[in-house]
Amino acid sequence: MPLVKGSKRPAGGADPGPQRAALDSPDADSRWMAARGLSGDADAVPALASALARETVPRVREAIMTALMRIGNAASVEAILPYLRSQEAGVRGDAIEALQALPHAIAPFMGPLLSDGDSDVRLLATELARNMKAAEATRLLSELIEREQHANVCAAAIDVLTEVGTPQALAALEKCATRFAATPFLPFAISVAIARISGAEG
User: Fold this and answer.
1) Are 122 and 144 in contact (CB under 8 A)?
2) Pairwise CA distance, residues 42 & 29, whole Å
3) Which of the following CATH numbers is that of domain 20-101: 3.40.50.300, 1.10.8.60, 1.25.10.10, 3.40.50.2000?
4) Which of 56, 106, 125, 193 is the most exposed place for a label (fewest CB within 10 A)?
């Protein structure tokens, strides 16, 4: 008898069809349970992405993003990324939290995010570097502050570098301090970052 390759299913082996259908339920509890049940089902990403686009209940939206996060592939990242542009702070926060948990999957998207035409997106993208490997986060954020013209975006990048930066960031930080010498809060923040990275802060 020929072997038949089974489709990917959530943990427990349950048929995901009814759960995907339940994402359209008028009942929020049913949608929430469906999202939780589809965690780990890579084939459910399109259904979860569609559900996320129309979901208005915060806890259900969070469950959908959590399901996408637990799948953790490039398609999941692509489904979550648009919500960095949401006008709702809670939605942006949920998206950042989910994407921060996927430092490897988000890595190929970081270049475009840090070069985005919207300064708010660039600012939020700096947070996504926080859980990346220190060397990669340092490279990305150093390149950003060498070209960035928006003081608040630089400040956000410097905050992350203060926490995770390596000595390779020092030259970029010094150049940034020179460029923004007339913006008082930035040179001070940079001095703190340089001290911490270089180990001079006691």
Assistant:
1) yes
2) 22
3) 1.25.10.10
4) 56
pLDDT band at 4 (very low <50, low <70, confident <90, very high): very low
- Number of residues written out for the chain: 202
Distance between CA atoms of residues 64 and 176, nearest Å? 39
77: tokens are 């990242």
Q: Which of 113, 99, 164 is nearest to 138 (CA)?
A: 164
Start-to-end CA span in the chain (Å): 71
Distance of CA 56 to the CA centre of its chain: 21
CA distance 147 to 113: 14
Give the residue from 94, 173, 162, 160 showing the smallest Cα distance to 122.
160
Give the tens place of pLDDT for each residue, 78-130: 999 999 999 999 999 999 999 999 999 999 999 999 999 999 999 999 999 99
Instruction: For residue 130, report the phi and psi dihedrals to the nearest 5 degrees.
Output: -60, -35
CA–CA gap between residue 43 and residue 7 (Å, rounded) = 8
Q: What is the value of pTM for the model shown?
A: 0.85
Residue 3 corresponds to which tokens in the numbers above? 């072997």
